[in-house]
Design brief:
Blueprint (H helix, E strand, L loop, with lengths): L2 H8 L1 H4 L8 E4 L7 H11 L12 E7 L7 H9 L2 E12 L9 H10 L3 E7 L4 E7 L1 H5 L5
Parallel strand pairs: 1-2, 2-3
Antiparallel strand pairs: 3-5, 4-5
Helix pairs in contact: 4-5
């Protein structure tokens, strides 16, 4: 195995589906976000994450969500308006025992109600868990446009 292939397999951002050249919009950024994960995503895509004010279509959305941020279903529906068909939402929530923890059943219910399907759950850092969510069209087509 080459060093590049080994790096790709261990790079969390790559395993989450991020690729060079993608436009990734970030929603819910705050001082508690995991800066190592943000840096890794930016390094992988080759550019900075765009913020909530970005007014074009993105390839993916990174959504940082805490229990006191409002309604998760609404946040997920809003996030899907920013992505192109075949795009994904990476939902990041605080881990068990952390301020803002969101129950997995609440994530599943909200994703289902928002019309998204969960493809994987991941350990996204010391304080964050992640769920990769796809639109039904993306899930059925294997994520192809």
């Amino acid at each position: 195995m080459s060093a590049t292939a080994d790096h790709a397999e261990t790079n969390l951002a790559v395993r989450l589906g991020f690729q060079t050249g993608m436009v990734v919009q970030e929603i819910g950024y705050d001082e508690d976000t995991d800066h190592e994960l943000r840096d890794l995503i930016e390094e992988t895509i080759g550019s900075e994450l765009v913020d909530e004010d970005y007014d074009d279509v993105a390839d993916a959305v990174v959504l940082w969500f805490r229990d006191d941020d409002g309604d998760l279903t609404d946040a997920l529906v809003d996030a899907t308006t920013y992505i192109d068909e075949g795009g994904a939402v990476l939902l990041l929530t605080p881990k068990t025992g952390r301020d803002g923890y969101v129950e997995p059943s609440d994530i599943n219910d909200a994703a289902t109600t928002a019309g998204l399907s969960q493809t994987k759950s991941i350990n996204a850092g010391k304080d964050w868990s992640g769920s990769r969510l796809l639109t039904p069209k993306a899930a059925k087509s294997g994520g192809k446009r």
